[in-house]
Amino acid sequence: MAARLADEFSISRQAASKHVSALVQEGIILASGDRRGREYRLATIDSAHRRYLREGLREDVVTREFFQPFLAGLPSNGQAIWQYGTSQMVNNAIDHSGSEDIIVGVRKTALYMDAWVSDHGEGIFLKIQRALGLYDPRESILELAKGKLTTSPENHSGEGIFFTSKVFDRFDIVSGRLHFLHDGKPFDLLFEHDEASAGTTVAMRLSHSATRSTKEVMDQFAAPEEFTFAKTIVPVRLALYEGERLLSRSQAKRLSSRFERFAKVVLDFEGVDEIGQAFADELFHVFAAAHPSVSLAPINAQPDVAAMIERVDAGV
């Protein structure tokens, strides 16, 4: 590793080796293996977890009691992000999981902090599937990605998971056999595990050097001169089942469900190689004509996808 560090920072190998040894001695990184096969990894500086009974629990108490001590020394914007995200996810677990207990945890390194909130309830994807009458629990992830989704509209606006996933460097939801990952890459990822996990676990990661603020992120989705959640970015790739292509009108209807709640919908076609004429017509002609107040803005479209959209727009 010393050679790689020397190249990266334009210093001598001896200086790089000295820095690495100092980091090991300070407990910031851990070293294992013999000299030729030496491996290094970030050390856990601090960690903890705690179980709370859900009945009568308040998210502000959990944030203040458990999470707040780990935020000492972090930049003010990072502290605000953590306070927002942990309170939102604990509140979701309190109000929606039906679990007897809620488990929270933290792992802190020199570069970033991880935190998680777990419950033993029905599971978020199954609950959304049941509440919205969806065909498959995987469709729940697409609905979460759109935002403005809640199974308790009298108590929630449906913004918590959407904005929490956007303010962190990494955001994971694991429930049942499904694992949703948002980590700032061009498109979100969906994994399907062989074994099902009970309940729901939401995990968040933020670098100590992150410069964004919650306000900056929320402003990206607000209407100009307003404080409303008017815009969403939808990863179209999440509408695909394995081995499928986006060809039919029913697929477009599933994708566009609840679009009418937004003033602008940015459709991110990253990772989508092809769409059919019926799919494009249903989305960019039928839906657009029925909802003229909703602006559909495709981005990251491959040439074939862009050509199909242009063909529909031209009425060909």
As for the number of domains, it is 3
> The CATH topology of the largest domain is what?
Heat Shock Protein 90
Characterize the quaternary organization of these chains. Answer: single chain
Helix residue percentage: 25-40%
What is the H/E order? HHEEEHHEEHHHEEHEHEHEH
- Cα-to-Cα separation, first versus last residue: 59 Å
Judged by helices, strands and strand pairing, the structural class is alpha+beta
Q: What composes the largest sheet?
A: 5 strands, antiparallel
| Fraction in beta strands | 25-35%
Total helical elements: 11
Average pLDDT, rounded to a whole number, is: 86
Number of strands: 10
Radius of gyration: 23 Å
Annotated CATH homologous superfamily of the largest domain: Histidine kinase-like ATPase, C-terminal domain
Strand order, sheet with most strands: 3-4-5-7-6
Low-confidence stretches: none
Name of the level-1 CATH class of the largest domain: Alpha Beta
CATH hierarchy: architecture of the largest domain: 2-Layer Sandwich
Gross morphology is: globular
